[in-house]
Design brief:
By secondary structure, the chain is an alpha/beta fold. It has two domains: about 230 residues, 3-Layer(aba) Sandwich (Rossmann fold), CATH 3.40.50.620; about 120 residues, no CATH class. Helix content is about 45%, strand content about 10%. The chain is built from 18 helices and twelve strands. The longest helix has 16 residues. Bound molecules: glutamic acid.
């Protein structure tokens, strides 16, 4: 049974970087008829909020990334306590008393001497009497004692990896105020929930090394790890500063379609082409983690726009019916109206703009040299009702009367009718134009 999890901390809104992690884990679970867990890493009570947790659920639901089970770390403190006891019994968890300032000083000294800033384990040399004395006047934190050996694993994206445990500080698992840290909680959860695959950002590679040893110390099965590259901006700049503006909910508010986001992020950074898909199943079918590379992945928010536009143009009338009705298009006219505008919508809400233009008319855009031509053309406008032939009949009559042809004929008429040089096929749009302000000028 394949089990994956997406484990955000509810301390902020999800952004495109998080989505990539969520999506990969989701797709692996679905590809294997497995289980996808939403795990809220909320061991930090000060920064985690229920509002952010609710926002995470809402964003995932909007994208259609459904989870089979939800867990939260704050509900499992007893379990983490028990795990800490197990590690203590095995001599793998030891008490330390250095303050943050002291640790900082140690690090600086090591760096000055050209040494890596790895914790020197001096707490291991304390006698029981010394520890008792220290406990009287300062809080203690607890570190996992790494076995100093090479930790190796086959990474699902990065291939064979190994990290020398001696080059890494013994990780702190319990803080001075008693708070369990993510590392311990995450490992317990992965073991208890039978997580088989962990895909996460490459910023977690070192964590993985230490987590493998903790999992083994707890007698659990080590999942398969894979670390995807981090996203950068279009010219390679770090995205982290801009992530605030790339929150999933902001993209949603800007009209970006879920399938545009999913189609891009499910393939970006892989050797497979980014192609718009109409549903998640198609993305799942073609997903292969081994096609992803280690290099940082460039992400350009602009790429979501053409995908969104294309997705909308592919929607059927049935799928858009409610939206079209909601903006006030009469039912009898609605299917044809959809056909007229579907290729010209940047976002779904754009449809309201086209309907308003049809209903109220547009301010004509008439170049100085076209004034006489447009006035003459307006006199030739056919009687209503208009249908799909009206544009052809009218422009033919205008051509006969003025001798203009091609772009010189069509563009001034389009601009006069809809106030802009681009837009829907005029033959399809014309039956819906209820008001033509240019006709009132003559
Ligand atoms: N809460 C952690 C994070 O968001 C989870 C990392 C992991 O997947 O283990 O970075």
């Amino acid at each position: 049974m394949t089990t994956t999890r997406f484990a955000p901390s509810p301390t902020g809104f999800l952004h495109v970087g998080n989505l990539r992690t969520a999506l990969f884990n989701y797709m692996i679970a679905r590809q294997n008829d497995g289980e996808f867990i939403l795990r809220l890493d909320d061991t930090d009570p000060e920064r985690s909020t229920e509002e952010f947790a609710a926002a995470i659920r809402e964003d995932l639901t909007w994208l259609g990334l459904t989870w089979d089970r939800e867990e939260k770390q704050s509900a499992r403190l007893e379990r983490y306590n028990a795990a800490a006891d197990t590690l203590r019994e095995k001599g793998r968890l030891y008490e330390c008393f250095e303050s943050p300032t002291e640790l900082d000083l140690k690090r600086k000294k090591q760096l000055n001497m050209g040494k890596p800033p790895v914790y020197d384990r001096s707490a291991l040399t304390l006698s029981e009497a010394e520890k008792d004395a220290l406990r009287q006047d300062r809080p203690s934190h607890w570190r996992f004692k790494l076995d100093h050996e090479r930790i190796e694993w086959k990474d699902g994206i990065l291939g064979d990896l190994s990290i020398d445990a001696a080059s890494v500080s013994d990780p702190v698992l319990i803080r001075g105020d008693g708070q369990f840290l993510y590392t311990l909680a995450s490992v317990c959860d992965d073991v208890d929930y039978g997580v088989t695959h962990v895909v996460r950002g490459s910023d977690h590679v070192t964590n993985t090394a230490t987590q493998i040893q903790i999992i083994q110390a707890l007698g659990g099965n080590v999942p398969q790890f894979a670390h995807h590259s981090l996203l950068t901006g279009p010219s390679g700049e770090a995205l982290s500063k801009r992530l605030g503006t790339l929150a999933l909910r902001d993209l949603r508010d800007a009209g970006i379609e879920p399938m545009a986001l999913l189609s891009l992020l499910a393939r970006l950074g892989s050797s497979d082409p980014v192609e718009l898909r109409s549903n998640i199943d198609e993305l799942i079918a073609g997903f292969d983690l081994s096609h992803f590379g280690a290099a940082p992945t460039k992400f350009d928010v602009e790429d979501l726009k053409p995908l969104t536009k294309k997705f909308i143009s592919n929607l059927t009338f049935e799928e858009m019916k409610d939206t079209i009705r909601a903006i006030g298009v009469p039912d009898a006219q609605a299917p044809d109206f959809w056909e007229a505008v579907r290729e010209n919508l940047e976002t779904r809400s754009d449809i309201g703009r086209w309907w308003k233009l049809c209903r109220d008319g547009a301010e004509p855009l008439i170049d100085e040299e076209d004034k006489d031509f447009v006035r003459d053309a307006m006199r030739l406008l056919p009687e209503r009702p208009w249908n799909k032939e009206t544009w052809g009949t009218w422009t033919k009559a205008v051509q006969d009367a003025t001798g203009r042809k091609g772009r010189g004929l069509f563009m001034p008429l389009r601009k006069a009718l809809i106030g802009q040089p681009h837009g829907p096929d005029m033959a399809k749009l014309m039956p819906h134009l209820q008001v033509v302000k240019a006709a009132q000028l003559s």
